[in-house]
Amino acid sequence: MTMRRPDLRVPRAGLHEQAARKLRTLIVRGDLLPGEQLPEASLSAALGISRTPLREALKQLATEGLVELQLNRSAVVAPLRREELTELFEAVSAIERCAAELAAVRMTAQDVERLEALQARIERHHGRGELRDYFEANQQIHSAIVGFARNGVLKASHDALLARAERARFFALSADGRWDESLREHRQILAALKARDAERAGRLLGQHVRRTGEIVADTLTKGKAES
After folding, report:
1. Share of the chain above pLDDT 90, in %
2. Per-residue pLDDT at 4
3. What is the pTM assigned to this prediction?
4. Is the per-residue pLDDT at 215 higher than 80?
5. Which of 19, 48, 132, 219 gets the most CB atoms within 10 Å of its CB?
6. Positive or negative CA dihedral for 189, 193, 195, 196?
7. Vertex 184, ends 134 and 94: CA angle to 5°?
8. Please, what sign has the CA dihedral across residues 179, 182, 188, 194?
9. In whole angstroms, what is the distance from residue 212 CA to residue 220 CA?
10. What is the 3-state secondary structure (H, E, C) of the chain?
11. pLDDT tens across 8-33, in order?
12. What is the CATH number of domain 82-226?
């Protein structure tokens, strides 16, 4: 397999964590495609590590739902499956809705300023057509809102699903019209949070997350129908 990134080599310390981080980024951004094989020999050479830390990295990604391990065969990038995505976004939507409701009443003035700065960033990236930069800031907004809920259990639950949700979100943003729609929804969510309207903030963020899941599922169904 020919790797798409030339700068994959990692430092010797924390090899499997850093290898997992690099591979996670490639999977989430779609540089490694669903169903693509991950042969150990070429991957270890590309990353500049031995197979032992690579295997640990692949195991870590498997627990996150990004990689599927196969007995006596190369691991593969986990496919995007409609049924699993529906369940995933039901869970993420519920978590983020609850987080937004709590954040609306628990945010500090500094937290509000942080969200305003992030909103300004996605507005800027959208205006410049910088999808990947928009995506990075978009993810920071979602994580920030969950963090502002100041509930450790909620945050841990969100973190456990984050990598899988990120991959689907990036996929959805590439769909026709979703990028513009996403930006409008984020404006409404921020306004509700600033108004300390917990019910509205939670409802809007929950709908925003579910909408993303619906778009990914519909795109996958359409792709199967056309193939």
Report:
1. 66
2. 56
3. 0.81
4. yes
5. 19
6. positive
7. 85
8. negative
9. 13
10. CCCCCCCCCCCCCCHHHHHHHHHHHHHHCCCCCCCCEECHHHHHHHHCCCHHHHHHHHHHHHHCCCEEEECCEEEEECCCCHHHHHHHHHHHHHHHHHHHHHHHHHCCHHHHHHHHHHHHHHHHHHHHCCHHHHHHHHHHHHHHHHHHCCCHHHHHHHHHHHHHHHHHHHHHHCCCCHHHHHHHHHHHHHHHHHCCCHHHHHHHHHHHHHHHHHHHHHHHHHHHHHC
11. 665 555 888 999 999 999 998 889 99
12. 1.20.120.530
The CATH number assigned to the domain with range 15-77 reads 1.10.10.10
> What was the pLDDT predicted at 9?
62
Q: Distance of alpha carbon 136 from its chain centroid, rounded? A: 9
Instruction: Find where tokens 């699903």 sit.
Output: 161
Domain boundaries, the chain: 15-77, 82-226
Asked if residue 207 has pLDDT above 70, the reply is: yes
Same fold, 15-77 and 82-226: no
Average pLDDT over residues 85-108: 96
Mean pLDDT computed over 168-173: 85
CB-side exposure of 165: number of CA atoms within 13 Å?
25
